[in-house]
Fold this protein.
Amino acid sequence: MNETPVTRPSLLLRVRNAEDAAAWGQFVEIYTPLIFGFCRGRGLQEADAADVAQEVMRAVSRSMGRFDYNPERGTFRSWLFTVTRNKFNNFLERRRNHREADGGTTMQELIEARPCPEHDASWDREYHQRLFDWACAQIRGEFQEGTWQAFWRTAVAEESGEEVAQALGMSVGAVYVAKSRVRTRLRECIATVTGDDSLPA
């Protein structure tokens, strides 16, 4: 997932259809945890992060009917970050105004309540990780335990093929075949929602 994925137009077109509940459900399943985690990572409490995530989803839902997908004008991921950043900053501003009206904020609260900048590298990292986690959950049941462990231990835990083969009672060749099978399926799964099949090397 080192390359920049582009959200697949077909998914965006499906989400634009208010009657396509399955598409919206998939969209929410993929992106709400990303937004929630991003807000939590910037210091919001769990309930506040959930509120911001809901606000973002409402804004996206209102906008998707007239959303014109054009990769040359920017990625959907970047647009979603802009919406998330705006809602995050709006939340902080409301909280700051409320606290000032109630008698001011503490220095610690002001330090913690930092607006989200226009660019944040953590968004891309978390986006990639969210897609990987989601895809793993989608395909996990398609593979036998040994096949999955061979993939996970070599590709994610970065154990050597020899170590994994010995631990799982497989040949080294079988370990790498298993790793390749799972990676191929992961690429296919990710491509269904991003149009991009990149995975970590």
Summary: The CA atoms of residues 174 and 198 lie 23 Å apart. DSSP finds nine helices and no strands in the chain. The chain has two domains: 1-130, 143-201. Residues 143-201 form a domain with the Arc Repressor Mutant, subunit A fold (CATH 1.10.10).
